[in-house]
Amino acid sequence: MKKQSAKKPQPVPAKTAGTKTAVKKKQPKKTTLQDKLHIVLVVALVIVVAAVSSLAVIYIRAVSRLPLPDAIVQPHDGTQPPEQPAPGGGIQEPGAPPPPDVRGVPEVPEPGSRGSLVFVIDDAGNNLRDLEPFLNFPGPITIAVLPGLPYSVEAARRVRSAGKELLLHQPMESIGGTDPGPGAVMAGMGSDEIRAIINRNLDELWPVAGMNNHEGSRITMDAQAMETILALSQERGILFLDSRTTAQTAAPQVASRLGITIGERDIFVDNSQDRESMLYFISRGLLVAEQNGWAIMIGHVWSPELAPLLKELYADLIGQGFSFSSVAEIIAQKR
Predict the structure, then answer these.
(1) For the chain, is the Cβ count within 10 Å smaller at the N or the C terminus?
(2) Domain membership flag for residue 107
(3) Does residue 89 sit within a domain?
(4) 136 CB burial (10 A radius; 0-12, 13-18, 19+)
């Protein structure tokens, strides 16, 4: 038998330019009735949601303009939302004018909460012109009148008439040896002579709340002389203010031994009479008052800028929480 020869595969003819291959086109999917209904429902739902949202906004705006029903205005007991306070605190009554908005406004301290200030004005009696501005001071102030001067008696009378605290400004010898003026207590005087001089000066200006020393560094260092002076003050029922013209004063120790409470000067305001200097020393007095509860500051009637400065500072110091007081009130606090 003859073997059959394997047939050779016939070559595929190459594509020639311009020959198009037949491509079967994909037929578009037909939209069914169900699809159309689905689209219509979605569009309708979107329209409904938008309409409801607009109506809700309009409703909320309208309700917010309505007055709050009386039934809701009640104390908060935890079951109702708390009411909003009116500016400055508290619930505003219907129809009432709005209260002032005090939020952020610092509280005004109580007068005296930061300390009491005592201003003692020495050396009155030479004339009435220098005294008058201090008598017009709006708050408490203490005036110390020198004895034996042309206007001593009238100055004392005017001080009392103005309702100010009056002291005898008792002249005493100083270490420097300057003349302290008429009616002075001098070194070497015995107890009886000291008593006679001071009693005469007190009678000239009587009634007075007390006395303080004019100059007097030599006498206030003398424990024996101070014992006589303080004992006499106690007998006459008046106070004693130590002007502390020397750091070596014996007055506090003698007073403690006798069981007498005295006042003591803290600050001299007008060693220099310019405004800046006096402001500086007054500011130091304020610090003393804040630390100790009070400060006793001494100035002089002949300082031309002192009375206007004190009057200018008065309202501001009260607003800061300081109060103005008298020597008698401070001594009462110390007891």
Answers:
(1) N
(2) no
(3) no
(4) exposed
Judge whether 209 lies within some domain. yes
Q: What is the pLDDT of residues 166-210, one digit of tens each?
A: 999 999 999 988 999 999 999 999 999 999 999 999 999 999 999
Which range scores top for mean pLDDT: 63-72, 94-103, 110-119, 282-291? 282-291
Chain centroid offset of residue 144 CA: 31
Overall number of domains in the chain: 1
51 in a domain, yes or no? no
The answer to whether the CB of 125 falls within 8 A of the CB of 151 is yes
Range of the domain at 323: 122-334
Collect contacts of 190-194 with beta carbons under 8 A, ≥24 apart: 191/224, 191/228, 194/225, 194/228, 194/229, 194/232
- 209 sits in the region (left: phi over 0; alpha: psi -120 to 50; else beta) called alpha
Closest to 263 measured CA to CA, from 283, 249, 273, 277:
249
Q: How many residues does the chain have?
A: 335
CA dist 238 and 232 (Å) reads: 9
Q: What is the pTM of this model?
A: 0.69
Answer whether 304's CB lies under 8 Å from 134's CB: no
Q: What pLDDT, on a 0 to 100 scale, did the predictor assign at position 95? A: 56
Which contacts of 22-27 are long-range, i.e. CB under 8 A and separated by 24 or more positions? Answer: none
The DSSP string of 274-304 is SHHHHHHHHHHHHHHHHHHSEEEEEEETT-T
Give the chain's radius of gyration (CA, Å): 48
Give the tens place of pLDDT for each residue, 258-279. 999 999 999 999 999 999 999 9
If you ran DSSP here, which 8-state letter would residue 247 be given?
Answer: T
- The CATH code of the domain that includes 262 is 3.20.20.370
Q: Do the beta carbons of residue 255 and residue 230 sit within 8 Å? A: yes
